[in-house]
């Protein structure tokens, strides 16, 4: 009897202890749930897990949720997101302005040698003495053989081909997606004539006559805004400069007496695209006003040897250069025109006009 009584007492004690333990566990779960709910309402949670430690819950002020594990860290700041929304500029796709450098040559463009037309070069060669066609052909073959066997020239040609491969159209387009339509900034004023370089000569086809025309012949003795583009994207850029320029100095049909003019260069370096543009010349004539046909030049060859002197690093962009009566580049810009650039352009043309083009 005493054995049964003792067993019953022990069982009751065990049941009471189990009930007490269950009550404590339930109380802890309820407290944890309340604590978690309170944390979600009032503060931030930082859960740190480790291979050797148990998870710990730390309450801190603010709204930063930091989940740290032994392998990675993930942070989410709602307050920063709210401030980012407040600080975002108005307008879809707004981009913060970058502090752009000057062009690679400090705002100077062009070549150091004064350009000469092919007629002038031919005349100078004729004055040096006439040679027979056989001697000219012999010298030409000799020069080509020397070029083929010259190791230094072959290495330079290889570097040039590698550069062309690495800086193709896709690379230039990828560059635009990173840098935008401005690679460098224009100078706030004209370059002094003693420091300015010359505009190189480019031979192309006149839109008006379909005859060969040389750029140096169009520029000599006049103040010229030279606009260069080869894509529709670049045409939009040069239009932003040409429109205010033509409002101040309009062009008329058959008027060659004006000392201020606009010269447009359509550069097509890709042979396939050049062939398409050749077929579309009648359409180009319809889209370009008639008074601009005489100074519209089409060029169907590569100008890669001039891109570095003119700071034309990207073929998709449009470029403009202000050239004085001595064929010196006094100012240059590219991409979409800003108010400051348009103001500098118009003031510079006015100053050159008052000084007689110099």
UniProtKB/TrEMBL annotation:
<dbReference type="InterPro" id="IPR007849">
    <property type="entry name" value="ATP10"/>
</dbReference>
<dbReference type="GO" id="GO:0005743">
    <property type="term" value="C:mitochondrial inner membrane"/>
</dbReference>
<dbReference type="Pfam" id="PF05176">
    <property type="entry name" value="ATP-synt_10"/>
</dbReference>
<feature type="region of interest" description="Disordered">
    <location>
        <begin position="71"/>
        <end position="141"/>
    </location>
</feature>
<feature type="compositionally biased region" description="Basic and acidic residues">
    <location>
        <begin position="74"/>
        <end position="90"/>
    </location>
</feature>
<protein>
    <submittedName>
        <fullName>Mitochondrial ATPase complex subunit atp10</fullName>
    </submittedName>
</protein>
<feature type="compositionally biased region" description="Polar residues">
    <location>
        <begin position="115"/>
        <end position="130"/>
    </location>
</feature>
<dbReference type="GO" id="GO:0033615">
    <property type="term" value="P:mitochondrial proton-transporting ATP synthase complex assembly"/>
</dbReference>
């Amino acid at each position: 009897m005493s054995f049964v009584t003792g067993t019953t007492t022990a069982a009751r004690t065990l049941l009471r202890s189990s009930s007490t333990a269950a009550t404590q566990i339930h109380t802890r779960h309820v407290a944890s749930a309340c604590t978690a709910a309170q944390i979600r309402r009032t503060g931030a949670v930082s859960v740190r897990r480790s291979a050797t430690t148990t998870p710990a819950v730390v309450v801190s002020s603010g709204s930063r949720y930091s989940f740290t594990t032994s392998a990675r860290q993930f942070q989410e700041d709602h307050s920063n997101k709210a401030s980012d929304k407040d600080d975002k500029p108005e307008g879809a796709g707004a981009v913060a302005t970058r502090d752009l450098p000057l062009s690679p040559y400090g705002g100077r463009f062009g070549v150091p040698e004064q350009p000469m037309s092919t007629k002038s070069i031919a005349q100078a060669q004729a004055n040096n003495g006439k040679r027979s066609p056989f001697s000219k052909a012999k010298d030409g073959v000799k020069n080509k053989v020397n070029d083929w066997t010259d190791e230094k020239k072959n290495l330079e040609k290889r570097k040039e081909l590698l550069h062309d491969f690495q800086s193709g159209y896709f690379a230039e387009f990828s560059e635009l997606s990173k840098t935008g339509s401005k690679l460098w900034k224009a100078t706030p004023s004209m370059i002094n004539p003693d420091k300015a370089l010359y505009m190189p000569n480019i031979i192309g086809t006149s839109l008006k006559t379909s005859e060969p025309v040389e750029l140096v012949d169009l520029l000599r003795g006049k103040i010229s805004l030279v606009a260069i583009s080869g894509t529709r994207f670049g045409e939009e850029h040069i239009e932003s400069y040409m429109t205010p320029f033509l409002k101040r100095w309009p062009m008329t049909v058959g008027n060659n007496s004006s000392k201020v003019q606009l010269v447009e260069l359509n550069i097509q370096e890709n042979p396939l695209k050049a062939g398409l543009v050749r077929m579309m010349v009648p359409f180009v004539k319809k889209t370009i006003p008639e008074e601009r046909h005489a100074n519209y030049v089409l060029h169907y060859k590569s100008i890669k040897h001039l891109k570095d002197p003119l700071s034309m690093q990207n073929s998709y962009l449009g470029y403009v250069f202000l050239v004085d009566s001595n064929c010196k580049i006094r100012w240059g810009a590219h991409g979409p025109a800003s108010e400051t650039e348009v103001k500098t352009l118009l003031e510079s043309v006015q100053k050159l006009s008052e000084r007689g083009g110099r």
